[in-house]
Amino acid sequence: MSDFLILGGGVMGMLTARELAQAGASVTLVERGACGRESTWAGGGIVSPLYPWRYREPVTQLATWSQGSYVHLAQDLLEETGIDPELRQKGMFMVAVDDAADALAWAQRYQRPMQQVDADFLYRKESNLRPGHTQALWMPEVASIRNPRLGKSLRRSLELNPRVELIEQAGDAKLLLESERVCGVRTERGEYRAGQTVLAAGAWTATLLAQLGIELPVEPVKGQMMLFKAPVGLVNRVVLQGGRYLIPRNDGRILVGSTLERVGFDKQTTEQARESLYHSALDILPALENYPVEHHWAGLRPGSPEGIPYIGAVPGLEGLHVNAGQYRNGLVLAPASTRLMADLLLKRSPIIDPAPYSVSAQHPCTGVDR
């Protein structure tokens, strides 16, 4: 029996397992499919909330800690595994922003690097953007990470750690409840027990809690994205406009995202979204018209009220914890979310105040007769 069982093999589950194992604990990670293949794989990888000033303080706290840790995380993973997560520290432009004054006030309050730049500055950096912008907001320290490669490197890191047992293709899971204590999980591959169980199953977290008669407002929110096969240098920095963004990769590919759709657990792509994403991409970078769309996909984000995640113990049950609900900011908030989760589990001094993320503080769990 392991010290900890993590249910969910996305970036949140894998980083939690890595944190705990590095602290000396034994960990079993159980994933119903393949690790890193749900929202971890489907996201964009901007290491900043979109329009960060529009989020509440708890999200800013997690994002700030995470942004400062990604450089070391990416380097450590490359050295451990030989797989480069491709952290690009090139900055982010935000064009056509209506509330720029609020953005600059937020940046000053939190001492975040941001400035308003003129057209000359913008087009010197990104000459292929659509002409006509007179100004933009520039955040020079915003990075992006290639999330599929991050998932691969995290999985390899866990494989190499003798304290971690990695269980994939486990199928449907049922939490094991004995005398008001969760002691593990039963899956199609077998039964796994641990002293403490952590639900890090993204959009499926609420479904697992519902087995125990507990309601938590984490719902699937579909996001569709596309990838253009473009040459290196067509655009070099993240560009955000009208809620849509372009993210360049090291090999020249350019990702465009994303939609927000509340359609349950439907991961099908649609022609309507494809057309919308395509036109958004060309509106930002007209030259993309000359390059093919290589891929179009969809993923399910774990939506939560106001995007504030749930991190901590589940009230009313012993041995059960949750780390989910990061919504659109899973990759942004992952290092801080998982470090905070590990701090709570290991009874260490937490990196930030955990109170705003507790299940009971945000949303008293609704229980029914079990």
Automatic annotation (TrEMBL):
<keyword id="KW-0784">Thiamine biosynthesis</keyword>
<dbReference type="Pfam" id="PF01266">
    <property type="entry name" value="DAO"/>
</dbReference>
<dbReference type="InterPro" id="IPR006076">
    <property type="entry name" value="FAD-dep_OxRdtase"/>
</dbReference>
<feature type="domain" description="FAD dependent oxidoreductase">
    <location>
        <begin position="3"/>
        <end position="344"/>
    </location>
</feature>
<protein>
    <submittedName>
        <fullName>Glycine oxidase ThiO</fullName>
        <ecNumber>1.4.3.19</ecNumber>
    </submittedName>
</protein>
<comment type="pathway">
    <text>Cofactor biosynthesis; thiamine diphosphate biosynthesis.</text>
</comment>
<dbReference type="InterPro" id="IPR036188">
    <property type="entry name" value="FAD/NAD-bd_sf"/>
</dbReference>
<dbReference type="GO" id="GO:0043799">
    <property type="term" value="F:glycine oxidase activity"/>
</dbReference>
<keyword id="KW-0560">Oxidoreductase</keyword>
<dbReference type="InterPro" id="IPR012727">
    <property type="entry name" value="Gly_oxidase_ThiO"/>
</dbReference>
